[in-house]
Amino acid sequence: MLEISGLTVAYGQVVALDQVSLSVPEQSITAVLGANGAGKTTLVRTISGLVRCRVGSVRFDGTEISRLAPEEVARLGIAHVPEGHGVITELTVEENLRLGSLARRGGNSQLELREAYQLFPALEPRRALPASSLSGGERQMLAIARGLAAHPRLLLLDEPSLGLAGQMLAQIMAKLRALVVERSLTVLLIEQNARSALSVADSTLVLSLGRVVAHDRTVKLQSDAELLGAYLGF
């Protein structure tokens, strides 16, 4: 579904991504792991059109998207949930969800709201409350639900573990795994919490200082003790 080839991104003289290539199969979860500064967030921001690459190709279903505006990328069926929960705290829970559904042409906002509350039941009793009143875990649920309200084919999920307790994070990861089957969803999961991401990912790419140091099936990478120790802190 997503093919990235030779992607190089720089901020001035600082190279954030250096010749990164990545393939994301349809209806799967691909994890991108690495320490802070590895280039993970730059990667998803480039895919979603927020950052321009210096060289390289980003193709979605065969269409080159590296020069498209963010709204054009979204219309193709790609939703980006940024790190830091990505909700508008001044708006209510329901208003945030309605914003997400606006990206879907011909959608039914009432149906999409019902789906969001079925997906994350903890949000429904808080539907009229401002997002600022939610806990960290609830905000992350809302951010993901808002991204899913547009019924994307590809979900770019950046650091969902940020600030979450272990039990809440496990619930969200399990929900993602279920959505791959239930909605034929494809997920590119950016994470610093390697253990959590490896528990749900079908394949995994490891970045270090903007370069790919490993890219393989997750079960194979999990057996590489040297890699896990050197780059993921196991």
Structure report:
This protein is α/β, with parallel strands linked by helices. The protein has two domains: 2-77 and 154-231, P-loop containing nucleotide triphosphate hydrolases (Rossmann fold), CATH 3.40.50.300; 88-152, no CATH class. The protein is built from nine helices and ten strands. It has helices at residues 40-47, 70-75, 93-101, 109-119, 136-148, 166-182, 194-198, 218-221, 225-231, and strands at residues 2-11, 14-24, 29-33, 55-60, 63-64, 78-81, 154-158, 186-191, 203-208, 211-217. The strands form two sheets. Strands 6-7-8-3-9-10 form a six-stranded mixed sheet, sandwiched between helices. It has a four-stranded antiparallel sheet with strand order 2-1-4-5, with helices on one face.
Keywords:
26% strand, six-stranded mixed beta sheet, 9 helices, Rossmann fold, 234 residues, globular, alpha/beta
Q: Briefly, what CATH class of the largest domain?
A: Alpha Beta
The structural class is alpha/beta
Helix percentage = 25-40%
Globular, elongated, flat, extended or rod-shaped: what is the shape? globular
Looking at how many chains there are and whether they match, the oligomeric state comes to single chain
Radius of gyration: 17 Å
Query: What string, H for helix and E for strand, traces the elements in order?
Result: EEEHEEHEHHHEHEHEEHH
Number of domains: 2
Beta-strand proportion: 25-35%
- For the record, what is the CATH homologous superfamily label of the largest domain? P-loop containing nucleotide triphosphate hydrolases
Report the biggest beta sheet as strand number plus sense, adding barrel if it closes. 6 strands, mixed
The DSSP helix count reads: 9
Strand order of the largest sheet: 6-7-8-3-9-10
Instruction: Enumerate the spans where pLDDT stays under 50 for 5 or more consecutive residues.
Output: none
